Amino acid sequence: MKFAMLICGDDREWATLSPAAEEEVMKQVFAWFERWQPAGKVAEGGIELQPRDTAKTVRAGANGEPVITDGPYLELKEVVGSVIVLECDTIDEAVEVAATWPLAPGVSAVEVRPLLSRE
Fold first, then answer.
1. Closest by Cα among 88, 90, 107 to 29
2. Nearest of 101, 71, 73 to residue 86 by alpha carbon
3. Can you give the residue ranges of the YCII-related domain (predicted)?
4. Which of 24, 36, 58, 104 lies 20 to 30 Å from 18, alpha-carbon distance?
5. What is the predicted pLDDT for the residue at 76?
């Protein structure tokens, strides 16, 4: 079964890291992938999103036509910064894998959700 692992946090914290601190965090992230990819738990590698200020949001306007705004629609402290698709037998197993993600500056939560299959 596939699960989305959503890496959430305040991307503005990440931007404050020194190059050395960023490199250290990335070493931890690469080590995480080196642990779980060979075990068959990573179905699709990480998709890292650019900072929130690069986002555009589309929503329905008053007349039903799309309205496009800069940035995320809601003013949130936490945003999704990365998505990884896990392949695990149960959500409990997916949570065990997700719980080993490095909780570095800018990462305040890792959410695990089953993917919906319409087969």
1. 107
2. 101
3. 1-114
4. 36
5. 67
Q: Does residue 119 belong to any structural domain of this protein?
A: no
Is-contact 115 3, C-beta < 8 A? yes
Expressed in percent and rounded to 5, the helix, strand and coil fractions of the chain are 30, 35, 40
- Domain holding 84, by residue range, is 2-114
pLDDT at 98 over 70: yes
∠48-22-56 over CA atoms, to 5°?
35
Q: Say if 30 falls within a structural domain.
A: yes
- What per-residue confidence (pLDDT) applies to 111? 94
As given in the structure block, the two tokens for residue 11 are 């991307």
For residues 93 and 1, is the Cβ–Cβ distance under 8 A?
Answer: no
